[in-house]
UniProtKB/TrEMBL annotation:
The keyword Ribosomal protein applies. Belongs to the mitochondrion-specific ribosomal protein mL41 family. One of its GO terms (molecular function) is structural constituent of ribosome. The gene is MRPL27. This is 60S ribosomal protein L27, mitochondrial. It is found in: Mitochondrion. InterPro entries: Ribosomal_mL41. It comes from Coemansia asiatica. GO terms for cellular component: mitochondrial large ribosomal subunit. Signal peptide: none annotated. Pfam families: MRP-L27. One of its GO terms (biological process) is translation. Keywords: Mitochondrion, Ribonucleoprotein, Ribosomal protein, Transit peptide.
Length: 89
């Protein structure tokens, strides 16, 4: 009986199980798989498992992005391919 009680106390000291504690423990990061492995070692993506986000049409939305009224007004010239290649960006 005393050994059972000692075992309970020993188990109560353990903290949260992490991947650094214990062998062969992989917690994962809850992302899920997007495909499957083939027998040749390749990975095939299943498009039904890929996450897609549905964004509503905001073309005629009256809401604007929040910008502080205290910010300074400035104008930025558009960047062209020549400016980017010359390193001016």
């Amino acid at each position: 009986m005393q050994e059972v009680i000692r075992g309970l106390f020993r188990g109560a000291k353990r903290g949260v199980m992490t991947s650094k504690k214990g062998r062969n423990f992989y917690k994962g990061n809850r992302t899920g798989s997007m495909g499957s492995h083939t027998k040749h070692g390749n990975y095939v993506i299943d498009l039904n498992k890929v996450r897609t986000f549905v964004v509503p049409d905001l073309s005629n939305c009256e809401l604007k992005a929040y910008v502080s009224h205290r910010s300074d007004k400035f104008k930025v010239d558009p960047c062209t391919a020549k400016d980017f290649a010359a390193g001016k960006v």
